[in-house]
Amino acid sequence: MTICSTQLSLIVLLTLVLYILIRWLAYYPLRNATEENIVHEAKQNSYFMETIRGIQSVKLFDKHYQRHGTWMSLFVNTVNTKLTTDKLSALFEFSNKLLFSMENVIIIYLGASAILDGSFTVGVLMAFLAYKGQFESRTASLVDQYIQIKMLGLHAERLADITLNETETEIIKYNHIPKLDNEQLVLKVENVSFRYADNEPYLFENINLEFKDNEAVVLTGQSGRGKSTLLNILTGSLKPETGTVSINGHDIYQVSPSFIRGLSGIVRQDDVLFAGSIGENISFFDESPNMELIEQCAKMAQIHDDILKMPMGYETLIGDMGNILSGGQKQRVILARALYKRPKILFLDEASSHLDVENEQKINHNLKSLGIMKIMVAHRQETIQSADKILNLG
């Protein structure tokens, strides 16, 4: 390109320098506007999904107009920030076209003048314009790709809290799974303390507990005293600040998480069901489900008769989070799912909170006949009275 004309080449280079400068100056306002738009859009979508999930409460409290008004405000904020982003993009595009159009006018004017003076030929000018087009398009594309990569950082930053966290396999370095054969299980809690943050008080401190095979133990106490947290520690979901939790002498935090998970069945307060049939949910989508065991577990959980009354029995499809089932039915299906594992330890966190007294008594009797270790969090007297041991956490 410089072989054809040094003067015109300098104009092209100056134009590209100005393009890069404009692109860079536009980057920060555009980035800030895009970030604001992403935040507002996330708030709007989150509010919308929250309203859909709690639509029954919204209707019963006659708050649909209020929720709709708030959502409309969030939607308007999202649209406004999107308009700001679009305006900045349009302004940059206008500046871009104006800059290169002026450059073309100047180059053609100077080239035409040189042709009239006899120092340039039409062929040389056409060759220069061809080289210029290639050079500018490649350089502008390179600059644009660089800016786009930097803009992607916005989305990466929003995902950083998730993607940069250590995975379970990175945190837990142990793969060993001890074999217990047919040993009697003893679960020991020794000098365990836990708090959620360094500046918060301990939920419990230096507690020592022992759970034995074929024993039903209830953890009770006032709300907020750490009963569910202790259950999460016993299942390996949380790690205590100090102390150990061991099964037959094997520290559950010094072996593979599959050790405690393979031994236990768990029913939590916030457990959910998945889209699929009731039978699939009880077997937790086992590749080779044992129908006889599914029915046996359903009977133990006092849900078998309810399932048979449904149109397709165990093949009845339930939606996301089991939304065609009542609270009590859902809780019993989740209990049947825990029993399907044939656990040696059963952890129950308020597993009968939605059950009537009759069904609760039958389930407690059925669970007692299993002859396994049961550790329960409960407030209801029927469950507490069914236990062999009661541990009050205050």
Automatic annotation (TrEMBL):
InterPro entries annotated for this entry?
AAA+_ATPase (IPR003593), ABC1_TM_dom (IPR011527), ABC1_TM_sf (IPR036640), ABC_transporter-like_ATP-bd (IPR003439), ABC_transporter-like_CS (IPR017871), P-loop_NTPase (IPR027417), Type_1_exporter (IPR039421)
So where does this one cross the membrane? Answer: 7-26, 106-131
Can you name this protein? Type I secretion system ATPase, LssB family LapB
Compartments (UniProt record): Cell membrane
Q: Which domain of life is it from?
A: Bacteria
**What is the residue range of the signal peptide feature?**
none
| Topological relation to the membrane, as annotated | Multi-pass membrane protein
Look up keyword Transmembrane helix and say if it applies.
Answer: yes
**Organism of this sequence:** Neisseria meningitidis serogroup B
Gene Ontology MF terms: ABC-type oligopeptide transporter activity; ATP binding; ATP hydrolysis activity
- Write down the Pfam families for this protein, in alphabetical order: ABC_membrane, ABC_tran
Keywords, in A-Z order: ATP-binding, Cell membrane, Membrane, Nucleotide-binding, Transmembrane, Transmembrane helix
CC annotations in GO: plasma membrane
Give every ABC transporter domain span: 187-394
Q: Where is the ABC transmembrane type-1 domain?
A: 1-151
